[in-house]
Amino acid sequence: MDLKALYNLSYGVYIVGAFKDGRAVGCTINTCFQLTSKDPIIAVSLNKSNYTLEAVKESGRFSVSILSQDTDPMLIGRFGFFSSRDTDKYEGIGYDLIDYVPCVKGSFAGRLILEAFETVDCDTHTLVLCHPVNAVEGSGIPMTYAYYHNVIKGQEPPTAPLYRKE
Fold first, then answer.
1. pLDDT tens, residue by residue, 29-41
2. Residue 66 near residue 75 (C-beta atoms within 8 A)
3. Is 131 inside any structural domain?
4. Domain holding 77: CATH number?
5. For burial by CB atoms within 10 Å, which of 62, 95, 152, 164 has the most?
6. Burial grade of 41 (CB within 10 A; 0-12, 13-18, 19 or more)
C-alpha cells in the first residue's frame, strides 16, 4: 500500500490553547473539523504525548485559532516544535483571554472556544469531541497544510499525524 496518497488529504493549520496548573499552554495541530451542523460538534486530534492534551482533558475547555496565510509562520514552529512542559510558548507573544481560555495573539482566520465532552482513543492520538461555546470571526484566507508545505516550506514535528522523515 502506498501511504503517500494520504499526503493529498486536505488539512488546515491551527493553534490550540488551554490552561494547565494556571499556566497557558498550547500546540500546533493540523486536524480540526466540523462533524455536525445542528448543535455543531467539532473534532480535534491531539498527540497523546502532547502536554496540551493533558490540559484539555483536565480543563475540558480550550481554544482553536485558525491560522490564516498571513499568520506569522514563527508561531507554527514555536507552538509545534517545543513542549509546553518546559517552554513558555506565549513568552514575548502573549495571549488574549476569551471565555477564560488563552488564544495566542496574532492574525487568524477565526477562533473557536470549545468545550470537550468525549475523547476517542486513536492509537498515537486522541480525538477530542467538542461543542463550540464561542466563535470569533477573523480575517484572511485560512492556511492549509499544503500551503504550509509548498509556500512556507514548513516541516512537521515527529508528533504530527503526517510526520515523514525527509
1. 999 999 999 899 9
2. no
3. yes
4. 2.30.110.10
5. 62
6. middle
Q: What's the predicted TM-score (pTM) here?
A: 0.89
For residues 131-155, average pLDDT: 85
Task: Annotate the chain with three-state secondary structure.
Answer: CCHHHHHHCCCECEEEEEEECCEEEEEEECCEEEEECCCCEEEEEEECCCHHHHHHHHHCEEEEEEEECCCCCHHHHHHHCCCCCCCCCCCCCCEEEECCEEEECCCEEEEEEEEEEEEEEECCEEEEEEEEEEEEECCCCECEHHHHHHCCCCCCCCCCCCCCCC
**Is residue 149 over pLDDT 90?**
no
Cell numbers that stand for 76 in this block: 507554527
Whether residue 43 is contained in a domain is answered as: yes
Task: Note the pLDDT tens digit of each residue in 68-88.
Answer: 999 998 999 899 888 899 999
Domain contains 5: no
